[in-house]
Design brief:
The chain has helices at about 5-20, 20-35, 35-60, 60-65, 70-100, 115-120, 125-140, 145-180, 185-205. Helix 1 (about 5-20) packs parallel to helix 8 (about 145-180) and helix 2 (about 20-35) packs antiparallel against helix 9 (about 185-205). It has nine helices and no strands. The chain has one domain. The chain is globular and about 60 Å long. The chain has about 210 residues and is mainly α. The two termini are about 35 Å apart.
Amino acid sequence: MNEPLIFGLIVFVFVAAITPGPNNLMLMSSVMLFGFRRTLPHMFGVYFGFTFLLIAAILGFGELLIHVPAAGHVIKLAGSLWLCWLGFQFLKEAFRQHMAKSPQPANQHSRPFYFFEAVLFQWINPKALIMALSSAGLYVDIAEDLMTRLIMMVTIFTLVGMPCGIAWMILGRGLTRWLGPAGHGRVINLIMALLIFGLVGMILMV
């Protein structure tokens, strides 16, 4: 095992996981809309999905995309269509709450991500793809044995990355307590819709 590379990977994962990105912003917004407990399936989906993505990258998924570019285009197109539908749902809920005269709780009609949706989302999330593919290539010498390298990298990403996501969820809960849950649903739903539509643009331009 290469100790300097292990330390470098820990720093890389922390910096990449704690900085703003689609997952962190959506987890924070989900907590503000639906609460901490209802966002847990979304959070676990993020980390299960990223783990599968990282394992695939270590086993050569990046090479597959290089040699079969059509597969990447299909993934991007299908994911973008699904995200557009999801963003429209948030936008529709924001409009419905804007038209309502009395303040309503943010979570009355919209819903958080399902577990499987968060899992699939990682495969079209530009930041997740960059993290998985780049770390699989840059830290290939972290251990000579493939299985050892795979276990070490998955463990480091889980132990370092998951607390970073939880920190963003805690931030979302703090903002909810500061702003108050009622009457702010349309703003948060609108932010979520714009974030998703912006992400679709990023995906299609990559």
